[in-house]
Amino acid sequence: MLALGLMSGTSADGIDAVLVEFKGDPAKPKWKILNTVSCEYPSSTRKKIIKVGQGLKINSKDWLELAEEITELNASAARTCDPDSVADVVGCHGQTVFHRSVKNSQKGGSLQILLGPLLANMLNQIVIYDFRSKDLASGGHGAPLVALVDESLIGRLYGWRGILNLGGIANLTIIPPKTGIHKTSDCLGWDCGPANSLIDLAIQETNNSLFKFDQNGSIASLGIPKLNFIEKWLKEPFFHLEPPRSTGREQFGFQDLQKRKKELGDITKEDLISTLTTFTASIIAQDLDNLFRVKKIHLIELLVAGGGAKNLFLMKQLQKQCCGISVRQINEIGIPSQYREALVFATLSWWHVLGRKINPKFITGASKSILYGVRVDP
Description:
Blueprint: E1 2-8, E2 14-23, E3 30-40, H1 43-53, H2 60-81, E4 89-100, E5 109-113, H3 116-123, E6 127-129, H4 133-137, H5 150-154, E7 160-166, E8 169-175, E9 188-194, H6 197-206, H7 227-233, H8 254-264, H9 269-295, E10 299-305, H10 312-321, E11 326-329, H11 340-354, E12 374-376
Parallel strand pairs: 1-4, 4-6, 7-10, 10-11
Antiparallel strand pairs: 1-2, 2-3, 4-5, 6-12, 7-8, 8-9
Helix pairs in contact: 2-3, 6-9, 7-9, 9-10
């Protein structure tokens, strides 16, 4: 079966599209990427998405028009990636603008903007969308959904394997070994905290929006990280919550950046970016230390995906802080880093058509097996 995956993450920089051919056992499929496309959002659209995600109040007409615009941009990305409409199904995540994690008795919540029926009719193809609501309704966090698919697409090794996504938010997948006493263990997954969200916002502030991100980590590499502040930040309660755990820009966005900048005081742009980037790496390293302390799980390798994998300073920090772990880009095993999440939603849409349910208990915390997504026919 051919599936087209469409994804735009919390960085809200655009839409990644991937056309994939799937064959064989859904749990261990043979898959081949046929085409990939990345379409940037217009700058006005990106700014609007980020502002509403940070609490900007807009009227109903503006909400509708934003939903229509995002749907049309997804349709354009789909047509560019699959010009002959050969995909049997299109899996589209939509654009997250709000995420509320599960706390105490409070249900989790997550809002993705997309008009699924409109997209299906524009493409004249089956569309699977709204991937998070069933998970949330079953008491789960609705995130990170990428961890549900990693084991099937990537497989197991002779030791514990980690997959790290560095988008706006960082999330981890922990895949058990294929032999030994842990071979019957379940995959684990959780959101770690900010990856690029604070870094990108700081770049846009300090450069008057001339740049959207720290390309190759070049600015961070010129600064000196304030390690005493990072050590203090790592003690914040969120970073010590037991998984399942999820978060978003609501927690690690503009207001959070302002609070941290105020604590740091009058420092250079280079030191600020260096500190925030080192903070991201330190969050991951602390999570992996806690994983070993609590569950005695030590990774033999960590595969890194997402935009942050291109940040050379961040990758060096990860390699430095994740002691005894081989840290490398996921590209090295044949998965294009930028398109990993789009590949995941192509897979989930294929599974939906097959009727394959997944047990997300140790990833999102949902209480039952779920058929992810909602189907709409043109």
